[in-house]
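Let's practice the habit of predicting before peeking. Look at the sequence and jot down your guess about where helices and strands might fall. Then scroll down.
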Amino acid sequence: MRILLADEQSLFREAVRVALQAQPDVEVVAEARDGLQAVAEAVQTSPDVALLDINLPNCDGVRATYLIKERLPDCRVLVLTGEEDQDKLVEALEAGASGYLTKECPLSELLQATVAVHRGETLIPPRMLGPLLGRLIRRRREQDEALQRIAKLTKREREVLAFLAEGRDNDGIAQALVISPQTARTHIQNTLGKLGVHSRLEAAAFVIQNGILEDLVGAEQ
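Done guessing? Here is the structure:
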């Protein structure tokens, strides 16, 4: 098992490296003290597992996770954090991490977690699993409600909403749809009214927060 270890603290890296390399068939092939270096070392050494501190300088652990997974899909990432944070857990998982572990855990637990994610398991602290599932269920319910609201829109209004989410102004929407600015304003007003929002910004936030831009784009085709 080839390991990449990334943490700003050299003493932490040394302690973990010694513990890892004391295990049979485990090799720390690269170390990094910041996120950009971690990504570069991952690309160069192709580790099986990357252990990334979530607060890496220059490029944090979540962003580094995304960049590593983008370049090396088969590399497993275990994110290490100083404290449990539900938001950071969700961000790490969405970026492609296979596990999330606090640095307060014993080295033996870190070793077990590294082996587990290498086997393909997803590792989440038991205390955080219940809140995570509840959050995912709420998000799914909110997304379903959002899809019900956009189902009230006409095809043209869905196109307008997608352009609003992209930040286009009235003239930009009019040009894209080959309609007059006044017609574009009318479509925007109708779209806002059906969604029950009061501004273009609210409409854009509605799309982005619920992750439904792809549904709008798909509806255009």
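How did you do? Residues 126-150 form the longest helix (25 residues).
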